[in-house]
Amino acid sequence: MAAAARRAGVAAETVSQTGEPAPVVLAEADRWAADLLVTGRADPRAASRAYVGTVTRELLEFAEVPVLVVPQPVEE
């Protein structure tokens, strides 16, 4: 993913950590002084926030920076 972003001219790096996902992501965001968090949503048809996953919901609630939630493409 980071390689594709760099090819598109976007500065990006990846990190692999273990632990509870949301707290680990939030700690890494702080460590990197992130400007934005980007996460996915499994069901692209779910317009309601009730269908956002647990990790995404925690990021939305506790992140100190904006969180962009990207839906998975709908397969036809």
Describe the structure.
The protein has helices at about 1-5, 20-30, 55-60, and strands at about 35-40, 65-70. It has one domain: Rossmann fold (3-Layer(aba) Sandwich). The mean pLDDT is about 85. It has a two-stranded parallel sheet with strand order 1-2. It is globular. Strand 1 (about 35-40), helix 3 and strand 2 form a beta-alpha-beta unit. It has three helices and two strands; from the N terminus they run H-H-E-H-E. It has about 80 residues and is an alpha+beta fold. InterPro entries: Rossmann-like_a/b/a_fold, UspA. It comes from Georgenia thermotolerans. This is UspA domain-containing protein.
Keywords:
single chain; 76 residues; alpha+beta; Rossmann fold; two-stranded parallel sheet; 36% helix; globular; UspA domain-containing protein; Rossmann-like_a/b/a_fold
The topology string of helices and strands comes to HHEHE
Strands in their spatial order, largest beta sheet: 1-2
Going by CATH, the architecture would be 3-Layer(aba) Sandwich
The total tally of domains equals 1
Shape descriptor: globular
Helix content estimate: 25-40%
Q: Could you name the CATH class?
A: Alpha Beta
CATH topology: Rossmann fold
Radius of gyration equals 13 Å
| Count of helical stretches | 3
Region (Disordered): 1-20
Pfam families: Usp (PF00582)
Protein name: UspA domain-containing protein
Biased composition (Low complexity): 1-12
